[in-house]
Amino acid sequence: MQKSILILGACGQIGTELTFALREKYGSEQVIASDIREGNENLMNSGPFELLDATNYDAIEDVVMHYEIEEVYLMAAMLSATAEKFPMRAWNLNMNSLFNILNLAKEKKISKVFWPSSIAVFGPNTPTENTPQHTIMEPSTVYGISKQSGERWCSYYFEKYGVDVRSIRYPGLISYKTLPGGGTTDYAVEIYHKALADKKYTCFLKEDTKLPMMFMDDAIKATMHIMETEVASLKIRSSYNLAAMSFTPAEISKSIQEHIPDFEIDYQPDFRQAIADSWPSSIDDTKANKDWGWKANFDLGRTTAEMLKNLK
Ligand code: SER
Questions:
Q1: Model pLDDT, residue 2
Q2: Regarding beta strands 264-267 and 200-203, do their DSSP bridges make them parallel or antiparallel, or are they unpaired?
Q3: Parallel, antiparallel, or unpaired: how do β-strands 31-35 and 71-74 relate?
Q4: Please, which residues have CB within 8 angstroms of residue 205's CB and are 6 or more apart in sequence?
Q5: Does the predicted TM-score (pTM) go above 0.90?
Q6: Could you tell me the pLDDT band of residue 46, with boundaries at 50, 70 and 90?
Q7: How far is the CA of 102 from the centre of ligand 1 (A)?
Q8: How many angstroms separate the CA atoms of 26 and 29, rounded?
Q9: What is the largest CA-CA distance in the chain?
Q10: Does 37 have pLDDT greater than 90?
Q11: Contact, 267 vs 202, CB < 8 A?
Q12: 73 band by pLDDT with thresholds 50, 70 and 90
């Protein structure tokens, strides 16, 4: 029999595509999608769905028992920009959901966990270019603090209780199937929608703010890959640095102009500028490459071509 998988936060930007990819691989009925609200029609029609609050341990346990779940992907979280507005809600959601899943694994009710971390674990004192796996981490955002604490807890549960939890520090993720919600890197998705609709975009970051980014196909590939990797190869149980490309708003707009020559961008930085300024510009992911063979496929040019083609 195929293993059963539960995805929490299945209706979000990553969760939606992860659900499709896991269903394709393991069978629709084996992958239980869940979220606090229903997702888009394609997702809802693609297989089993449960309304589930990631902070409710008993409700998650019921679903885990009912479907005999072995693996959980915890994609529910409040992202950086929204978390600055609701610090306590962000902390409660991001931490309690993680403890719920780590404790289910500690109790041996599930056997494997995926939990996403982020470039937000780094802070203003971190080296910004080619940020190493192990370096100064003093996050200055609510979201970053929750992700860094989460990494420490993942590592602790692995060391003390043998919990098989695996994690990746995602850069900003670019995708066309489901919109991101409440992140600082969201501009790199919005810009494609606006380029096609209005041929102009007002960016909430400055033109020279360089951030690490990744096309969703690469993020899904990395997620499935790290979950399939043999235990012995995984040397890092906090979270792996992961990289694909880095660019500024000016550079992404240039890449759009190659397809839409009269596209225009202007800049009105808001509170998200400070968040972006505290994050790295580029990431050194040699450990992920060495330990489990990670390599990205999509650069900026290819990402722009895919985004414009699919959003049209
Ligand atoms: N993309 C996320 C955000 O901007 C970072 O993990 O919040």
A1: 81
A2: parallel
A3: unpaired
A4: 184, 187, 249, 267, 269, 272, 273, 276
A5: yes
A6: very high
A7: 22
A8: 8
A9: 58
A10: yes
A11: yes
A12: very high
Nearest CA among 160, 167, 50, 163 for reference residue 101? 163
Q: Please tell me the distance from the alpha carbon of residue 226 to that of residue 229, in angstroms, as a whole number.
A: 5
CA of 262 to the centre of ligand 1 (A): 29
- What's the rounded mean pLDDT across residues 304-309? 98
Grade residue 213 by pLDDT with cuts at 50, 70 and 90. very high
Q: How far is the CA of 101 from the CAs of 160, 168, 202, 240, in angstroms? A: 16, 17, 39, 19
| Token digits of residue 230 | 């043999």
Told to judge if 161 belongs to the known catalytic residues of this protein, a careful annotator would answer: no
Residues 6+ apart with CB under 8 A from 53: 36, 59
Q: Which residue has the tokens 């985004």?
A: 307
Q: Are 257 and 185 in contact, with CB atoms under 8 Å apart?
A: no
Per-residue tokens: 224: 């499935």
Catalytic choice (57, 73, 143, 176):
143
Best probe residue, ligand 1, of 118, 121, 167 (max atoms within 8 Å of C-beta): 118
Q: At what angle do helices 87-106 and 142-161 cross, to 10 degrees?
A: 10
Mean pLDDT of the chain: 98
